[in-house]
Structures are given as structure tokens and as C-alpha cells.
Amino acid sequence: MGTKEYDLIVLGTGDAGQIVALAAAKEKWKVAIIEKKAVGGTCALWGCVPKKVLISGEELANFSQRMAAAGLSSKTTPDWPELMAFKQRLTGSYSENSRSRLQKHGIDIYQGAASFVGEAAIRVGEVILQGSHIHIATGACPRQLKISGEEFMTTSSEFLYLAELPKRLVFIGGGYISFEFAHLAARYGLKVTIIHRSEEVLKKFDPDLVALLVNASEKLGITVAINQPLMRIEKKGDELLVIVQAGSVEKVYGADMVVHGAGRVPDIADLNLEAAGIEASQDGVIVNEYLQSISNPRVYAAGDAAAGGVPLTPVAMVEGKVAAGNLIHGSKYQRADYRVVPSVVFTLPKLASVGLQETEASKQGLQYDVSFRETADWLHNLRINEPFAGFKIILDRSTGRILGAHLLDSHADDLINLFALAMQHNLTAADIKQVLYAYPTASSSIQYMVG
């Protein structure tokens, strides 16, 4: 078994890994990067990008259905195989381009599973890599549910590569993965059910707007079953039986496919971190404010593999830049800024959030004012016949600064970034209302949302 030495070894080729590897290579460091799957990472290959490509077809179908009452007579149904082929061309080229970019900068790529065998030594295949520094950016994987029949479940990554859609789909878990894919599948006329173990779905989003989204989902034909913990999954011929606890009795849902949407965890279980003295929790590698391991100073971590940050691609990118800066310029060169982190659920309509929820503001003892309103009767929703829309804005009572912004809207993914920009730069409601906005546009509505 041979040994090779590097200035930096990076685990994972997603954004949080590539950013660090490329930054170090540009400083003439000798860099290796290890990937157990395809080069490119979850977001580009099994997450954000392919999901958004498929949702593009869903958006067109949704628009034509809503506008049927306004004179748009043709009914649009997206073609799943054609969309999949288009998505594959896009993601395939991204993986190839990522590999070429890394190799162009002299970075050695190792394909295989990484496992620590010492404080700064990693085995991959039949090779031992010794690194002066190591950066862990292995992303996340589906949470193990530890129920009988778990092997019959389809992961979200696998769902995004289905050659065809089954007629009956059951999604386990009431998070963003289940809701996004359920909306996507429902546009094809499939029987879709979301099963959630407790009462609250989409817990990280405003409950009033979530209630509106659940109504929109049910109108689309999606069954949202709450307070039904999953007990087991059985296979009877070609059918899957999903058995849940519904009150004092068991209830059975029949399905052709059961999709895991019940959470993701840091993908670090197989790294043998103990061999390197790297402390970790269920939230990931435990790091300090500079993204350096608290127990092994040679090691840094970022993205979903690191404890602390929100598991979102933009956060992973920021953390990658921070880790790169601290590795290259010194361990206390810079910190990540998590003050303003917007997030979006890409259902139709979209659900978005940034900043504090109302309950959080209350727990912190803040003095605040809340503005909540349904906006289906506002022009930018009336003109596209969108029946489910609304907002909740939380303002600091004394300064007028935005503490939290929460939206349900066809344009929520873009509008939430305007609120994030305002919050990042401490703009007040008065500042937002002073702007002269182009009209009629969705973004011009934010001046009315803040009071």
C-alpha cells in the first residue's frame, strides 16, 4: 500500500470542498480531493440544480392550469422523460466541467470512500494520503429511520433520476423535500401522500403561511397526513404497504414507491473520525468559529458535514470561502456570517423565510410589530390567478428594522432576497418605502408589506 503526501486533502467535491481545493491550488499548494460518488456534489447533481430543472416543467403546467379561467385554453402537461433527459445533459456537463477544472489546477482526484487511519492520514482504496491539512466537506445523506422495511424506500437523490414516475407515491416526512417532490409529482396526475409523524409540517417556516401552503397542496390533490409516525414498510408483490400509527390503531397506505423525506444528517459516519481524534456530534464535525476542528487543529470542516451552520448551499459556499481563508492565511483570518440566511421551499406557490419567526422574537423578549396578510387579491397574484399567497413581516418596534420576513408567493424565491439584502444592510421599513419601484411588478409589493 503506497503513501502520498499533500499540503491539503479535501473530502468531498461539492461547493464547500471545491472552493477550498481550488483556493489552495491557486496558492501553489499540493492538493488532493476525494469523492466517493460523481464529482460535483449533491446540489449540482442530486439536489438543487436537477430539482429546479424538473420544477421548471411543473411551473409551466401550473401556470397553464391557473390561467385556464383567463383564456389560456391549452392544457400543458410536462413530459417526464424529456425533462429527465434535459436535466441529465445539464448535470452531466457540470460533473465533467468540475472534474476538468480541478485537474486544470493540478488537483489530484481520488475516486472512492475515504477513511481516517491517523491524525492526518486517510486511506482511499489501496493508497494512504498524508496531509498537512485536511478539509471535510462530505455533505449530508438521508437519516436512518431504523424501521423494518427501510430498504424499500427511495432516496430523494434516486427520485431525481427516475426513468418514469409510479402512479402512487408516499413521501415520509413533512419537510421541504417531501413537499417539493409531492408538488412536482401531483402535476402528473399521480396519487400523492405526505405522511408526517407530528402535527407541524415544515417546522422551520411560519405556521400561518405553512397552513396556506397545506391548503394549496390539498387542492392540488395531495393528501397531507399528520400525527402518524411510521412503524414499518412491507412489500407484497409489486405493492409497498406503509404502516403508520394513527391514534390507537395502525393504518395502512398502499404505494408503488415510498420516498424518504424525513431528514438528512452529516455524511461522516464512515470516515472513522475517531482514528484522527476528530470530535463530532449528530450535527457534524464540531468546529470553532473559524471552522477548525476543536480537537484536531489540522482539520477544518464546512457545509453540511460541519456542525453549526444551516444546511443550505449558499451557507456551504460561504463556509468554504471562510475555511479556505483560514487555512491559507492563518487559523483566525475570518469568520462566517450567519446573521441573514434566506431559505425557500420550491413548491407552487413557493414558501420563503429569512430572519426570526414570531415565536423566536417573542422568546428573545423583543419589542416588535407583526404584519400578516393574505395577498391573493393583490395585482401581481390576480394577474396570474394565484389563489394562495400571503406574507408575515416582523419589525423592530423602535427602529423599524426587519427582524423577519416570511412569504408564500409565486415570486417568493426572488422577493425573499430583497428582504435579505435589506436586513443585511440594516435598512428600515421607511428606507424600503422610499424606493421608487418599477410597476407593475411583484417586487414593488414589498413597500406595502412593511406597513
Structural topology:
Layout: E1 2-11, H1 15-26, E2 31-35, H2 42-46, H3 48-66, H4 80-104, E3 108-111, E4 114-118, E5 121-124, E6 127-136, E7 140-142, E8 153-154, H5 156-159, E9 168-172, H6 176-186, E10 191-195, H7 207-219, E11 223-225, E12 230-236, E13 239-246, E14 249-255, E15 257-260, E16 264-266, E17 280-281, E18 284-285, E19 299-301, H8 313-329, E20 343-345, E21 350-355, H9 358-363, E22 368-374, H10 379-382, E23 390-396, E24 402-409, H11 412-424, H12 429-434, H13 446-449
Parallel strand pairs: 1-2, 1-6, 2-3, 6-19, 8-15, 9-10, 9-15, 10-11
Antiparallel strand pairs: 4-5, 5-6, 7-16, 12-13, 13-14, 17-18, 20-21, 21-24, 22-23, 23-24
Helix pairs in contact: 1-8, 3-4
Provide an overview of this structure.
- This protein is an alpha/beta fold and 451 residues long.
- It has three domains: 2-142 and 265-329, FAD/NAD(P)-binding domain, CATH 3.50.50; 150-262, 3-Layer(bba) Sandwich (FAD/NAD(P)-binding domain), CATH 3.50.50; 349-449, Enolase-like, domain 1, CATH 3.30.390.30.
- The protein contains 13 helices and 24 strands.
- The strands form six sheets. Strands 1, 2, 3, 4, 5, 6 and 19 form a seven-stranded mixed beta sheet that branches. Strands 8-15-9-10-11 form a five-stranded parallel beta sheet.
- Helix 6 links the parallel strand 9 and strand 10 (191-195).
- Helix 3 (48-66) runs antiparallel to helix 4.
- The longest helix is centred in the N-terminal third of the chain and has 25 residues, at 80-104.
